[in-house]
């Protein structure tokens, strides 16, 4: 397996001569701000330069380029495999209610005896991310190795795009299957948010819509805690995520972030399911705790990868837009914390999302996370 970062800043008009690689890549990962991706020029040049490579990426308010972050432009990285086979599959997603069925359809396309792992990227505004993952698991099994995330648009929440084989498109989910015995994959995820306020019960919800906590309107409760910031919902809600967990199985715990509010119904729409009967507690962040969370995710992934006897050759980092908005210029600290643990030889690429998909550190069962740093480490046996 080889990995090479592509220089997108000085890319010439002649795409075939813009990148001088020693081999033809099997995969190109690309992330960029919504407006740049929507223009399509960078994606088309990449496709022209590498027509046989699977091209996968998405929009974001901020992308990760090594230990640096940028809010404008595009980052791209080329990956070549010696033995591993890759296959890219796409499904349309018109309505949030279609999320689980879309996951099932993708799972049926991905399914094969030698499937080792899946990287999935989805439109970030038209999806129930947890239902999407459940659909994939319905076909591939609860132990399927799935990671990725939902596309982002920074704090705008206007439009999200998936980059697929040279085209920017909305309302789609793309899944990349990694096949064969040579690929090695490890994951890590952690938050670092602090809980506050009383523990509450989810007393009324439907899918990803939360109506009541402790029998009271969910929006009223949030507004009571946010004060003046409530006028800026849903954007301000990114700074106050909700932790939910299943009392009957404490390993089932996730962080959920707000995507939309309905002031008439006094409800909140979150990025994943909010099961009735689960417990919930508000959270808020502090810079040093969030950086510690990123380091925790990196340690878990690196320790897991060490069991393979290899060093990671690529790190896909998917973090949350809420962390970016809260930490501002200090956000690079969490990426640097990851790099310090993985070492300077591991290339890092990724983006800030509207939802992160990765296995849970304890149960290893994949789910949708919010406000979390998630890492996918890859390498190939020589």
What is the CA–CA distance across the termini?
A: 8 Å
Overall residue-averaged pLDDT value: 92
Structural class: alpha+beta
Poorly predicted segments: 12-16
- Provide the domain count: 2
Summarize the main sheet.
Answer: 8 strands, antiparallel
> Nearest-angstrom radius of gyration?
20 Å
The global form is globular
The proportion of residues forming helix, as a percent range, comes to 10-25%
How many strand elements?
26
How many H/I helical runs?
9
Strand content: 35-45%
A few lines on this structure:
With 382 residues, the protein is of the alpha+beta class. It has helices at 15-18, 34-39, 41-49, 99-110, 129-140, 218-226, 287-306, 321-327, 332-342, and strands at 2-6, 27-32, 54-59, 63-65, 68-70, 74-80, 85-92, 115-122, 146-150, 162-164, 167-169, 172-179, 183-190, 194-206, 209-213, 216-217, 242-246, 249-256, 258-262, 267-270, 279-284, 314-320, 348-353, 355-359, 366-369, 373-380.
């Amino acid at each position: 397996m080889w990995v090479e970062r592509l220089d997108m800043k000085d890319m010439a008009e002649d795409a075939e001569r813009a990148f001088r690689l020693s081999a033809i890549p099997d995969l190109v990962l690309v992330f960029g701000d919504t407006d740049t991706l929507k223009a399509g020029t960078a994606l088309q040049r990449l496709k022209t330069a590498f027509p046989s490579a699977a091209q996968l990426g998405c929009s974001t308010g901020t992308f990760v380029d090594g230990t640096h972050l940028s809010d404008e432009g595009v980052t791209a990285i080329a990956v070549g495999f010696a033995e591993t086979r890759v296959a890219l599959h796409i499904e349309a997603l018109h309505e949030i209610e279609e999320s689980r069925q879309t996951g099932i359809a993708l799972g049926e396309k991905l399914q094969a005896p030698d499937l080792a792992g899946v990287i999935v990227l989805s439109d970030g505004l038209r999806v129930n991310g947890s239902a999407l993952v459940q659909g994939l698991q319905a076909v591939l099994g609860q132990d399927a190795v799935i990671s990725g995330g939902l596309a982002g648009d920074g704090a705008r929440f206007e439009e999200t795009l998936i980059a697929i084989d040279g085209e920017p498109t909305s309302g789609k989910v793309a899944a990349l299957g990694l096949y064969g015995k040579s690929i090695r994959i490890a994951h890590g995820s952690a938050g670092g948010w602090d809980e506050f306020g009383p523990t509450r019960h989810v007393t009324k919800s439907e899918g990803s819509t939360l109506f009541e906590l402790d029998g009271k309107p969910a929006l009223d409760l949030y507004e009571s805690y946010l004060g003046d910031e409530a006028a800026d919902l849903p954007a301000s809600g990114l700074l106050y995520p909700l932790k939910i967990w299943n009392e009957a199985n404490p390993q089932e715990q996730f962080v959920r972030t707000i995507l939309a509010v309905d002031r008439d119904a006094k409800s909140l729409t979150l990025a994943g399911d909010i099961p009735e009967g689960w417990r919930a507690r508000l959270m808020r962040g502090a810079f040093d705790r969030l950086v510690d969370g990123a380091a925790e995710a990196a340690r878990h992934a690196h320790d897991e990868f060490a069991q393979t006897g290899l060093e990671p050759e690529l790190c896909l980092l998917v973090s949350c837009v809420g962390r970016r908005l809260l930490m501002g210029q200090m956000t690079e600290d969490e990426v640097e914390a990851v790099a310090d643990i993985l070492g300077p030889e591991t290339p890092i690429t990724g983006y800030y999302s509207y939802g992160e998909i990765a296995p849970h550190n304890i149960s290893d069962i994949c789910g949708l996370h919010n406000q979390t740093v998630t890492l996918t480490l890859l390498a190939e046996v020589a």
